[in-house]
Amino acid sequence: MLKEQEINLVNLIERYHSEGSCRARLKELRWPDGVECPRCESKNVASVEDRHQYQCRSCRYQFSVTAGTIFHDSHLPLWKWFLAVYLIIESKKGVSANQLKRTLNVSYKTAWYLCHRIRAALNEVDAQLLKGIVETDETFVGGKAEGEGRGYKGNKTVVVGALQRDGNICLQVVRGRDRETLHGFIRENVSGDVEAIYTDEWDAYKGVADEDTEHETVNHSEGEYVRGNVHTNGMENVWSLLKRSIIGSYHQVSAKHLDAYLDELEFRFNNRENPYMFRDAMLKLLLAETLPYAKLIED
What we know:
There is one protein chain. By secondary structure, the protein is an alpha+beta fold. It has a domain at about 135-255: Ribonuclease H-like superfamily/Ribonuclease H (Nucleotidyltransferase, domain 5), CATH 3.30.420. Helices cover about 35% and strands about 15% of the residues. The chain has a five-stranded mixed beta sheet with strand order 6-5-4-7-8, sandwiched between helices. The chain has a three-stranded antiparallel beta sheet with strand order 1-2-3, with no helix packed on it. A two-stranded antiparallel ribbon has the order 9-10.
């Protein structure tokens, strides 16, 4: 059997080309200590081989490995789910629903819904606070407004981000660039005993330091981008990656769903050195709540 970290596109297809092989892998991931009834948690379970199901001897409940997961209400073959997850997490700039539509030979609606369910599952619910040296910056996401000048931002969405040097990122859509919003974001995502916070010269960041933390800035408006170890180049690279994803892969992203795309980027970036990224992504899908289509399209 292949080690999980050896997964690439070729051996993914070789290994998970059938429903049986996919179900077997989901079983290993969901119940590493043996099949357990999702209703009463009993391990006194019998296999119903001809139906790919199990029956609990304690409460008589019949279930499959996909019961209670986002796979359960899907008519899409499991091998297409596996392939979609792999393509999304391994593509540095993401994969559009149109690309998945062509690759998986499904309708656009199916591909779009599939992408969003995977993104929702990848959300870092219990992300650790950033430590050490942290870079913080904001950017505007949105297209050009017809008839407006280059600096017009009325149609754009504000995204704020923080990057731990040689570590993780956290990204979030926010209502504005005011002091209360930016300081609140930092308090929620950055450890209180962080060594230093580096930002640009934007006034709203003033006062973010305390007795345990230094705050240094670079003045972009005067052409200063690096001063010794002080810079926000790491966050600038993240913004570049985000915007290349939107322009080159997704082509357009609605403000309503922007946070979901940020969750996807966060997961890929934060697991860039993780040899078990595919396994961990599949675990998240098994644990994720079902995302109804109606909720995705509601106003």
